Amino acid sequence: MAHAAPRQTPSGYEVPRYITLKFAKVNARAGPGDDHKLLFVYRKRGLPLQVIAETSEWRRVCDQDGQVAWIHKRVTDGRRAVINTSRSPAPLLASPKAGSETAALLNVRAMAELDQCKKGWCRINTDGAKGWVREGSLWGTATRPQCR
Asked: Does any domain span residue 147?
């Protein structure tokens, strides 16, 4: 089976990819430009978003709720973060295996810094606590586009 070649983008980075918000207030627009309608305002610094398209100055992003909008590249950061999308707090385990000791809990819809993912587990950091969480309970790790 042949793999598709990475798409050429203005930034040189692959699309889709994840970024985070650099500021606590970011305007989300209907199109790539300040002259486009303001759809809503993101109000969470560090919020993970998936870039699904881009121009040289603007990024079309998707959030965990399925909203799609354009934001300026200057408000983005390349750091990675995730959100617990499970219906209960996610245990942060001491090692990436079921039954491992629980180091802490990641509350529902809480954000955490993403360190790495491997074999269905992701190592995260949140408020000084570090641990491994099942990848399926986190938003911000999927390689396929999350919104259209």
From this structure: no
